[in-house]
Amino acid sequence: MELDRLIRNPGFQLNLLLWMAKEQPEGCEQVRPLFAELGLRLLSVEKPFPLPEEMARQIGEMELEISTKPEPELILQRPEDGKALYFEAKASSFGPDSSTARQARGHLLACGPAFAEVLTPLRECLLCYVLPDDQTAQMAACLSALAGQLTDAGLEPGKTSLHGFAVQDGSRLAYVWDCALREFLGLEEETCVAILLEAEDGETDPCPLILVYSDEDYPDPESKDLFRQAFLRRVHTCLLCGLHLNPALNTPIPLVLEELLMETTEGVYEYMGRDRRRSLRSLVNERILRRIRDYWEPRAAGLYQREQGEVVFRFASQDVRDRFLDWLEREEFGGAAVPRHQDTLFDAMGADGID
Amino acid sequence: MVTLPQLGEVRDRFEVYRQLDGQVVRRGVVPTASQRPPVVKSFLLEHVRPTAKRPATEPAVILQRLGLETRRIDETLLAVIGTDVVPGDESTAAPRVVGYLETYDPRFFAFYTTEKSVDAQRLVTRWLDSPELDHCWFNSRLLQRFWDKDVSSRGDRLYGRLVFRHESIFEMPDGDGEDEVPAGADDALDDEDSRPPERRKARFVMGDRIGEIRRSLDELQKHYSPLHALYALRFPSRTGRGGHDLYQNGQVTNRTHSFEEHRNMVRYLWRCYQTVLNTTEQAAWQSDEESVSLSGRTSRGVPLIVRFGQKLSPETFDRWVSCAFNKRNRFRLWGQPLRLGPTKVHVYGADRHLWQPLSLELTAQGLTAILPKDTCGNTFHRLVTNIQHYVCPKIEAWLGNREFSSLATFGEQEEREDGT
Question: Which residues pair with B252 in a beta bridge?
Answer without folding.
Answer: B42, B246
